[in-house]
Amino acid sequence: MFPKFKETVRMGALELNFLLDGQDTAGTLVQFELIVPPNAKVPAPHFHVEVDETLYILEGTLTQLIDTDTHELKPGDHCFIKRGTIHGFNNLHSETVRALCSLSPANIGPAYFREIAAVINAGGPPDMQKVLTIMKNHGLEPVKQA
Predict the structure, then answer these.
(1) CA-wise closest residue to 22 among 80, 78, 102, 84
(2) Which domain holds residue 25?
(3) Each residue of 62-89: pLDDT tens digit?
(4) Residue 103's domain is classified under what CATH number?
(5) pTM
(6) Which is it for strands 97-104 and 52-59: parallel, antiparallel or unpaired?
């Protein structure tokens, strides 16, 4: 019997419960349950240089930015975010969101999220220069919104 989750990483109010990482999939896939409480601080809009992302909503309503379009994703909804596509998300509703997130290939895995969590959870305002460096080191590019 497999454990329910391989690892849990908490970044502020966000929780990522890893089901699969690159070691499980020969580097082809990372998969985790994403928990987003209402009004949680979330990552800034960004794009992945070499990684595609798929989201499937299990509970709640996720407000998802893809390029310049905003979508309200509800349970049963899904979206595919091709590498190079600007995206971001929020939970603007009263119910916690649970989503299944898959990243392929497995370039952005638990190590990335642990590094970001160490900066975000350090206390006080996060060192954004460290956050940006970690993002770039793992193939994520932040985008300034107009």
Answers:
(1) 102
(2) 7-140
(3) 999 999 999 999 999 999 999 999 999 9
(4) 2.60.120.10
(5) 0.92
(6) antiparallel
